[in-house]
Design brief:
single chain; 0% strand; globular
């Protein structure tokens, strides 16, 4: 059996349906997206794992009775791009789940089992370059989606088009009161037109 090929209609990855919580992007999540995921998903043996298993197309009626928590590379990519992961550990747990599902369902003598082993070797090799420690990117701005760009161009805002990042209110000690607009050195005073004298008739 080859778990991973095709797209099963009844399985949908669990993604946020409301406003994404303010889970900031980190240096490790960036590295996983740019290096780990890229190299694993582009490997020649990645095709069975790039999308959910289609148990009907592959004639695997027992797949979802054995694998009750499925995972695939396409779901990991969507979660990385949507800000679903709060930290790198949550993302790496999905990678581990992907490989464990492969080894659980397939026999060691089957091709897909060996393909999963090769992908895991690439995965662990790339993890050796993971930056330490994990830090939050201060200037993290979610990439705009095609739908959000079209919504902006049409003049209609799209709900939940990007994560909502809130900041704590400024304390009274840090609040800055602007100075009065007059009396500052170097400031040019605004000239006002003086009223013209009224001539006696």
């Amino acid at each position: 059996p080859v778990p991973g090929a095709g797209a099963r209609q009844s399985y949908r990855p669990e993604l946020p349906t409301t406003a994404i919580p303010p889970n900031p992007q980190t240096n490790q999540l960036n590295y996983i997206m740019r290096v780990v995921y890229k190299d694993v998903s582009s490997h020649r043996y990645a095709f069975p794992f790039n999308q959910p298993v289609d148990d009907v197309l592959l004639n695997l009626p027992d797949y979802y009775s054995i694998i009750t928590n499925p995972m695939d590379l396409g779901t990991i990519k969507k979660r990385l791009k949507s800000g679903y992961y709060a930290n790198a550990a949550a993302c790496l747990a999905d990678f581990e789940l992907l490989f464990n599902n492969c080894y659980r369902y397939n026999r060691p003598t089957e091709d897909v089992y060996k393909m999963g082993q090769e992908l895991e070797r690439v995965y662990r090799d790339k993890l050796s370059g993971l930056p330490m420690p994990e830090t939050v990117n201060k200037k993290y701005t979610p990439a705009p989606t095609k739908k959000s760009m079209r919504a902006v161009s049409n003049g209609t805002p799209r709900a939940h088009s990007s994560p909502v990042i809130s900041f704590p209110p400024m304390s009274a000690e840090l609040a800055i009161t602007p100075p009065p607009p007059i009396g500052l050195p170097g400031m040019k005073k605004e000239r006002r037109a003086s009223p013209r004298p009224v001539k006696a008739p």
